[in-house]
Amino acid sequence: MADQDASPSPQRPSVGVHFKCCNIYSKIYINHAATAYTGHCPRCACPIEIPIVENGGSSSKFFSGS
Ligand SMILES: [Zn+2]
Fold first, then answer.
1. What is the C-alpha to C-alpha distance for residues 57 and 24, in angstroms, rounded to an integer?
2. In a domain, 8, yes or no
3. Residues 6+ apart with CB under 8 A from 51
4. How far apart are CA 42 and CA 55, in angstroms?
5. Domain range holding 50?
6. At CA 7, angle to CA 45 and CA 27, rounded to 5?
7. Could you tell me if residue 61 is inside a domain?
8. What protein residues have CB closer than 5 angstroms to ion ligand 1?
9. Cβ neighbours of residue 40 under 8 Å, at least 6 residues apart?
10. How many structural domains does the chain have?
11. How far is the CA of 59 from the centre of ligand 1 (A)?
12. At residue 16, does pLDDT exceed 80?
């Protein structure tokens, strides 16, 4: 039992996002329904949502916010 996890939430998938509003890079995490990645700009708190497309969508792991 050497594995102490202080984090309240289990590991979740994340993607890197470039927030154009503030020209900064950050990560956002998948939502509970696993239908989209959602998060906020760390500087101005602008919300972002990236829908997850299962059929033939882009395999890119990098996105640009607005
Ligand atoms: Zn911003």
1. 25
2. no
3. 35, 36
4. 31
5. 14-54
6. 35
7. no
8. 19, 21-22, 41, 43-44, 46
9. 28, 46, 47, 48
10. 1
11. 25
12. yes
- Residue 58 alpha carbon to ligand 1 centre in Å: 24
Residue 66 counted as domain residue: no
Give pLDDT tens digits for 20-65.
Answer: 999 999 999 999 999 999 999 999 999 999 998 876 555 556 667 6
Q: Is residue 2 part of a domain?
A: no
pLDDT at 31: 94
CA 17 to ligand 1 center in whole angstroms: 11
Burial track 3-16 (b if 16+ CB lie within 10 A, e otherwise): eeeeeeeeeeeebe
Q: Which tokens go with 17?
A: 């996002």
Going from the Cα of 37 to the center of ligand 1, the distance in angstroms, rounded, reads 17
